[in-house]
Amino acid sequence: MTKILTAIKPTWNGMHIWNYMWAFKPFLELAEGKEAYIFIADYHSLTSVHDAETMKRNKLRLLKEYFALLPKNTKIAVFEQTKVNRINDITWILSSVTPLSLILRGHSFKDSKNKNSEINMATFNYPILMTSDILAYDIELVPVWKDQVQHMEFARDIAWNFNKTYNTDLFKLPIYHVDKNLQTIPWTDGRKMSKSYDNFIWIFDDEKTLKKKIMSIVTWSETLEEPKDPKKCNVFALIKLFASVDKQKEIAKKYKAGNYWYGHAKLELLDIILEYFKEARERYNSFENDMSYIEKKLSEWNKIANKLADKKYADMMNVIGL
Ligand code: TRP
Q: What is the pLDDT, as a whole number, of residue 11?
């Protein structure tokens, strides 16, 4: 069975609807009928999160979100990167076959370097750890957003370098998949998403906050009576993501007929989002008081991840003569 994997860093304080649409949902769809893994890239978040309380809070929230959004009794294994004992050992071995010139080409550390006067070594070495995340479990397919394409190319190069250096075929080169259907989705103000614009819609915010966020979506300023073009509207772009086709048509008609206020569309969007995430939001709240299910599953799945990584590490040690 094809092995597929993805990961999210607990860098942000929560999963927003775009994370869900561009990463989580495509992953669930691709994972059908495959052996699937999804992990919390907590070591990776150390490049930017240096406060224990923030780290704990982010990680806990992300865990609850994963488990709330995954179908009940899912076979997709969720695990924690930092609980995989050999992951950094594997990273060290891989770093010894990774040319400096390769990593120097990395866009993401160059971007950080341009923005900050100093960057840490974890930011620089990031692609090597990410390569271990994939090779440690013999992952064949990694669905990624386009910002991760270079990292995936690096993972393939590093796997290839190891095989070539040691004249082995220990690693299969992982394949990545970029979802081309996904267009850039407008944020609440039609601008690019950014923490500083505060234009995210978090899936698990309470209803009041969610409403406030949705009501603040930027729209045009026609009068109430004027017919409106749904294609030009940020609210409608979001309605299209979450509503059934019939519902979309019904709302588009109202836009075009006039006497329909953007505020009305926003309230419809709120209902649509609440309905879409109803079960997940209930499950998320149930975890507020009881983490036992999550803890039990994590301990099971962390063991599975360790077993795979231990085996890979043993094979690598054998190949390198240690
Ligand atoms: N670098 C990814 C991101 O920033 C997260 C990540 C870490 C990852 N390790 C991975 C994704 C392995 C896929 C496979 O989104």
A: 86
